[in-house]
Structure formats: C-alpha cells, structure tokens
C-alpha cells in the first residue's frame, strides 16, 4: 500500500491515541470525516493497522519483575520449534517470544511476573518442562530506558 501524507498522519495519531474519534482524527489531519474514515478502513483492510488495544501498567497490576530469558533447544527441527512456540503462547506471563540468531540461544522470551517466587515457578514448573528446552539464561530488567510501541512511519 502506498502511503500519502494523510495516511502517515493518521498512523502517527492513532499510534499515539487509538481512542480518537473519527471526527477528532479528521479535524487533526485536515480532512472531512467521510474521507478520513475511508482512509482508516483502507489502512485496516490492508493490514497496516493490525488492531487496537488498551495498554496496561504492569506495576499497577502488581507485576513488578520483568525477565529476559534466553532458551536453547536440543534439536533445530520445525516440529521441535512448533511445539515450543505453541507451549509458550499458552503461558500468559510470556509477553514476547523471538526466534533469534547470533547468540548461543535459539529464543528470547520477555516475561513479567509479581516477584522472584513467581519467576521461579514460571521457570522451573513451566518453561523448563517444555520438551526440547536444554538451556536457560535469565536476565532481569532494572529499568526501561526506551519503552514504546509506536513504529516509525515510512516517509517521516
């Protein structure tokens, strides 16, 4: 999809505040509501806008410990990877799972839990029991230096 200046402006504004009404969005980008809504719908249908979500505060929910977990697998087969990926998708504390290269690990997980006891339970009772997991290395986040979800919009 070719993005023009209106599309890019819509994307920037909606990434900042996904609750903007169509009227507010139209006013901010300088279009009338009907063409603005058509553009938003076209961006949604093209898959550029993948969805809308509420951003929750982990600490307000009592989830104060974030861990980055590097996972090594015993076999590098599609079946082994599919099994691992299905298992981690089912663990609510896992926020992100990345298949990586350039490390001694195969995956990097980002997890959030209440405290170290909850982390121990997550790691020992669930993650290390996934078939194929042979190595685990954990790092704990001290502070988030950059924490954003907005993507750079091409053409900016």
UniProtKB/TrEMBL annotation:
GO MF terms held by the record: sequence-specific DNA binding
Q: Which Gene3D superfamilies match?
A: 3.30.70.920, Winged helix-like DNA-binding domain superfamily/Winged helix DNA-binding domain
> Which terms are listed as keywords in the entry?
DNA-binding, Transcription, Transcription regulation
Work out whether the entry's keyword set contains Transit peptide: no
Q: Any one Gene Ontology biological process term?
A: response to amino acid
Question: Signal peptide: which range, if any?
Answer: none
Q: Which residues form the HTH asnC-type domain?
A: 3-64
| SUPFAM superfamilies hit by this protein | Dimeric alpha+beta barrel, Winged helix' DNA-binding domain
GO CC, sorted alphabetically, is:
cytosol
State the protein's name.
Lrp/AsnC family transcriptional regulator
Q: What is the organism lineage in this UniProt record?
A: Bacteria, Pseudomonadati, Pseudomonadota, Betaproteobacteria, Nitrosomonadales
């Amino acid at each position: 999809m070719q993005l023009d200046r209106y599309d890019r402006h819509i994307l920037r504004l909606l990434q900042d505040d996904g609750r903007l009404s169509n009227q507010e969005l139209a006013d901010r980008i300088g279009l009338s509501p009907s063409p603005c809504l058509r553009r938003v719908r076209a961006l949604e249908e093209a898959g550029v806008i993948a969805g809308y979500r509420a951003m929750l505060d982990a600490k307000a929910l009592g989830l104060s410990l974030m861990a980055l977990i590097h996972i090594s697998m015993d076999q590098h087969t599609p079946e082994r990877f599919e099994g691992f990926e299905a298992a981690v998708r089912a663990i609510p504390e896992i926020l992100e799972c990345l298949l990586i290269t350039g490390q001694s690990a195969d995956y990097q997980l980002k997890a959030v839990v209440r405290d170290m006891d909850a982390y121990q339970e997550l790691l020992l009772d669930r993650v290390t029991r996934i078939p194929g997991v042979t190595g685990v290395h954990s790092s704990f986040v001290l502070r988030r230096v950059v924490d954003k979800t907005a993507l750079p919009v091409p053409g900016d």
